[in-house]
Amino acid sequence: MHAFPRGRGCAVTASWFALVESNTTGSGRRFCQAARDRGLRPVVLAARPERYPYLAADRVDHRVLDTGDPEAVLAACRELAADGGLAGVTSSSEYFIATAARTARRLGLVAPDPAALARCRDKARQRDAL
Fold this sequence. Notes:
The chain is an alpha/beta fold. It is built from 6 helices and 6 strands, in the order E-E-E-H-E-H-E-H-E-H-H-H. Helix 2 (54-57) links the parallel strand 4 and strand 5 (61-64). The longest helix has 13 residues, at 70-82. The chain is globular, with a radius of gyration of 15 Å. InterPro entries: BL00235/CARNS1_N, NAD(P)-bd_dom_sf.
């Protein structure tokens, strides 16, 4: 567990910042670094974390779960919220961004409209909407 000093020398545990899966092109690693730069603890929720070598190289926390199951993602995020707080849920993977947004909204966190994200992912629905 990481602690960051705040205020009068008190150490408090930083909030988690959850990323549902990652991509393998490098932006997932940058998301984790950006979270750390803001004093947050990044954690990647992944079905197969070995797909993301940067997790071990950068000592990024992860949780293994079925990320295709929205209820499993929600349960993992609830556990994180109970363990130091949860500042946000997102994804660097276009495939999981709607799941991340739905989860964040269900937890009362700021997130884009999951329905709009789903429309953008479906090219036929996107054309109809535009």
